Amino acid sequence: MRRLPLFPLPVVLFPGGPMPLHVFEPRYRQMVAHCVEGDRTFGLLYHDPDLEGPFLVEPGRVGCTAEILNYQPLPDGRSLVLVRGGERFEVEDGIESPNLYWECVATPYTDAGTPVPRSRRRRAIGLFYEVLEHVVGHPRPFPEIDEEAETAFQLAQAIRVDPAWQQRLLESRSEAERLEQVEGLLRAVLEAGPDVD
User: What global pTM score does this model have?
Assistant: First the structure.
């Protein structure tokens, strides 16, 4: 268990994935300032206020830790931050504190199954490159996907589709299941053809 500052946003961060953030609300200015002075880590949770209303620190929510790689303060108090996804976590409980931002007690959120073989990952990567070549028009091999590491999260970070779909992927405890979900999406894109934006 660990104490973790929380940044709810209508986006999903995956382990290993980079994400630029523009920090402007006072509570998150304070949070980022405290993180930069500390271990440079906070928890990013998917939350869409237009669909879900005000944010609540509810037990069971799953997110991804975000490590601050680059912090650029701006003259008016805002900042530009580049983070990289770390480990998945699950909210155990909220923490009351004098800080403006939300905090929680978090526990690691890990897979229940075993990692898939490299050959299985390679198949998903091949399908992804096929989509890039025939639908999007990017030459292979862009972007580079590491078949030695968990592949579904890398592919989902590159695809950047519906955040609700991405959140379901983040919550899956099976790498094989995640690859099936990603491949299903990629096949649907291929079937739709090159007119897809």
Answer: 0.90
Could you tell me if residue 113 is inside a domain? Answer: no
Question: How far is Cα 133 from Cα 127, in angstroms, rounded to an integer?
Answer: 10
Residue 197 inside a domain? The answer is no
The answer on 129 and 176 residing in a single domain is yes
Same domain, 87 and 180: no
Q: Is 1 exposed, middle or buried (CB count within 10 Å of its CB: 0-12, 13-18, 19+)?
A: exposed
Distance in angstroms (rounded) separating the CA atoms of residues 63 and 134: 33
Q: Which two tokens stand for residue 71?
A: 């912090």
Last residue of one domain, picked from the residues 74, 108, 142: 108
Q: Cβ atoms within 10 A of the Cβ of 132, count?
A: 18
- Residue 133 in 3-state DSSP? helix
69 shares a domain with 128: no
Residue 46 CA to residue 62 CA, distance in Å, equals 8
> How does pLDDT run along the chain (197 residues), one tens digit per residue?
899 999 999 999 999 999 999 999 999 999 999 999 999 999 999 999 998 998 999 999 999 999 999 999 998 989 999 999 999 999 999 999 899 999 999 999 999 978 899 999 999 999 998 888 887 676 655 668 888 888 999 999 888 789 999 999 999 999 999 999 999 999 998 887 665 44
Which domain covers residue 155, as residue numbers?
A: 118-192
